[in-house]
Write a structure and sequence with these properties.
Layout (H helix, E strand, L loop, with lengths): L1 H36 L8 H22 L15 H36 L11 H31 L3
Helix pairs in contact: 1-2, 1-4, 2-4, 3-4
Length: 163
Amino acid sequence: MRALDKISNLLNQVLLWMAGFFLVAMILMTGANIVIRIFWMPIRGTYELMGYFGAIVTAFALGYTQAGRGHIAVDILVLRFSQKTRRILNGINYFICMVFFAAVGWRIAIYATTLRETGEITETLRIIYYPFTYGVSLGCFVLSLVLLVDLLRLFLGDREGNG
């Protein structure tokens, strides 16, 4: 359990730093495009890159946000249940979300493989974009790993002193 937790934390930290890099690139590109547009020469392909970089930023931050409990949760009804019932519901939620995001990551990886095999490229810049698609798949798999760790911590955490 602790090894899995350490792997999850390390992956999330690496992906978070990479997401930060892409976010800074998006900010710089947007600022440069605004300034250069004054002279009627916008940066070619900005729209394409913003979409791909935004997908990476979002996907790479999913696991870290889940680990830090940063996602929105509406639990007004669940708070009225007993601690045991809440624990069971949380376990069911973690399991369903873990399976869902693992399936999403798997299907996106298959789609990325199709893009790679067909040689798809972007219209404006003519760059390959399957690596961005694989990145989104990776983000979903890491989120699934975090949900697995949460599920294990929920049911085994008391014995290991983690929760």
